[in-house]
Amino acid sequence: MIPTITAFERSPDGGKGLARDTRVRWALEEVGQRYDVRLVSFGAMKEAAHLALHPFGQIPTYQEGELVLFETGAIILHLAQRHAGLLPTDAGARARAVTWMFAALNTVEPPVLDLAIARIVENDRPWTPDRLPLVMDRARVRLGQLSASLGDTDWLDGAFSAGDLMMVSVLLRYRASGLLDEYSNLAAYVARGEARPAYARAFAAQLAINAPSD
């Protein structure tokens, strides 16, 4: 059965690969699973039909027969457990890969989301000039810790895994701030992820939706 995912009809990032459906597309490409995409508008995301799939009115969702999933971590873990290629066969390494997935979402991503809110949503608030340096410093702490853990290795724990897929996807959000460039090994790590053919296919598919029409 070919699964269906939802994606923005028009992505806020204009097709730069930051919309979360790109993560799921990448995972599907890595495991060689065909998939369909149903595009939804911002208005449709708040309607009952979509809320039945995603109670928070976001994207992506994943439908496979009667199975409906939301949240990229849950979707990618499902794919990694069902298909070969994203989780190691060794039980210990498999558990560590899952740990890195959670670390990406729960530890590394929150600071960059906070940074985006401070720079975009709250940029006109009187407290922003004082708050922004604190937010930047918290992001640097996490990136510094991750940089030290990665060291000079290609991937987080041996071979590429779902942990790396999720971590690279999160780190891409740091690029616009310039913070990623402060850690050369993390910048190179992200570049290795982007160089994977599966990522290139996922990025191209997301970009094609957002390409300006003639």
Explain the overall architecture.
Strands 2-1-3-4 form a 4-stranded mixed beta sheet, with helices on one face. The protein has 214 residues and is an alpha+beta fold. The chain folds into 2 domains: 4-85 and 198-210, Glutaredoxin, CATH 3.40.30; 91-195, Glutathione S-transferase Yfyf (Class Pi), Chain A, domain 2 (Up-down Bundle), CATH 1.20.1050. The protein is built from 8 helices and 4 strands. The mean pLDDT is 93. It has helices at 21-31, 48-51, 72-82, 91-121, 128-150, 162-171, 184-195, 197-210, and strands at 4-8, 36-40, 61-64, 67-70.
How do the helices and strands line up, and which of them pair or pack?
Elements lengths: L3 E5 L12 H11 L4 E5 L7 H4 L9 E4 L2 E4 L1 H11 L8 H31 L6 H23 L11 H10 L12 H12 L1 H14 L4
Parallel strand pairs: 1-2
Antiparallel strand pairs: 1-3, 3-4
